[in-house]
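Summary: Need help interpreting a holo structure output

Steps to reproduce:
1. Submit the protein chain below together with the SMILES for zinc ion.
2. Request a joint structure prediction with the ligand placed.
3. Inspect the structure token block that comes back.

Expected: a single structure record containing both the chain and the bound molecule.
Actual: see attached output.

Input attached:
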Amino acid sequence: MKNLVGTFAPPFAVLNDAVFLRTLHPRDKIAGMAEAVKVSLIRDAVFFEWLEANAEALREYAPVAMARMIRRCAELHMRQITHGGDPFESGSVRPLDYGHWSAHKLEALTAHELRHGEAVAIGLALDARYSVQIGMLRAGLEDRIYDLLKRLGFYLWHPAVESRDDEGRWVLLRGLEEFREHLGGDLTITLLRDIGRGEEVHRMDTDEILHAVSWLRRREIGQ
Ligand SMILES: [Zn+2]
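--- attached output ---
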């Protein structure tokens, strides 16, 4: 369940839910929820609403709610793996990494002190806000996404988000460049058109990313 689609869904789908869950550290249980929120945001508005309605049960790791979440999350991931997305998409092979360009960088920057799901949750919030700022997502929906992540128990900030290198360059942005290289040279980032509907873009605006970071910092630590 580290960072690629193929390593997340099969273990959750195959293992016996209840037994497997009892063995997980709470931080790993909550981290799996980040992937559930992610896939609901880009694929399944009904699932997102279900997560909202069941946030308190999920936060307490109530077994029935957890099992249902994992099942739906795995179904949506597996559908992507086996069918490569729906026919209305532009043929991209990696549309399930919403929120991940910054998450990968944050994990590396914190030497994995931030677990994958914790970093992804920050990435989800940032890219939701970014989607609003560029006029793609209706204003207010970023708050709804932020609120769900908070209710699930995520802390959505880490100083590494704003870290600079020796020359004062903002290190998080290197994550975009690394993501581009990882994709083979062409940048494709999934943003949000609506809850349940991801949409790909091929560039991101540095200033707007900065504004999204400021928004998240204000919301999370109030400065
Ligand atoms: Zn992931």
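--- end attachment ---

Reviewer comment: Confidence is low (pLDDT under 50) at residues 1-16, 86-91. The pocket of zinc ion is lined by residues 3, 8, 35, 100, 116, 120 (CB under 6 Å).
Status: needs-info
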